[in-house]
What does this fold into?
Amino acid sequence: MAAVIAATGVVKTFGEGRAARRVLDGAALHVQPGEVVAILGRSGTGKSTMLNLVGGLDRPDAGTITVAGEPVTGVSERALSRLRRTHIGFIFQFFHLLPELSGEANVLLAGRVRGAAPDAAERGQALIDRLGLRGVARSLPHQLSGGEQQRFAIARALVNDPPVLLADEPTGNLDTRAGAEVLRLLRAGAEEGRAVVMVTHESAAADIADRVLTLRDGRLIP
Ligand SMILES: Nc1ncnc2c1ncn2[C@@H]1O[C@H](COP(=O)(O)OP(=O)(O)OP(=O)(O)O)[C@@H](O)[C@H]1O
It folds into this structure.
């Protein structure tokens, strides 16, 4: 089966001259549909950097990355932005919901971008129901618990039915119970055929993964 995420030879350096630090040095990552991959590693080893490069939030110095067969590297900012909106759902530790919009509006807005799935509005409403958020749909993010905010963020990430979900410490700011629910939802996202990559420090998160990779010396190793 073709990998949904295919990254090879990824190099990323931050800083210049003597301060330059090669954070990624030939990193590779291949993820199949339906697979959950957890990325572990010590602080500062480049886990978030790798996730951001795969998601087209940043560009590598060298290497090739494709998502669902489409190039993430060597493409225009416009093409990259379309790919991010339609092919990738992002989930972050601090949720990143727009603070002035209700949870529901955050989800629906993501379904109204150019290139969004035609049934995104219905999907958004169905996700709000399925994730148990109907009763708080009109609340603003600051009126919601962390677990509720992260569930809205997951609904937002799923609204365009992307083939890839990227989660950076998705349970890092949640209590055990809310964290377990988020992990269950990520797992369910994979069961629906998505490739899921999660950066985590938490063993409970790694436990739901099909594969665990460790970032060390600029590479991802089994
Ligand atoms: N935009 C940037 N500019 C300069 N340095 C950066 C930038 N982004 C990351 N770095 C550096 O690259 C290294 C890797 O950062 P990254 O956030 O990828 O690590 P991480 O493994 O996710 O760490 P943590 O587990 O602490 O979140 C760090 O030394 C960080 O300071």
Observations:
- The two ends are 20 Å apart (CA to CA).
- Residues 14, 23, 41, 43-49 surround adenosine-5'-triphosphate (CB under 6 Å).
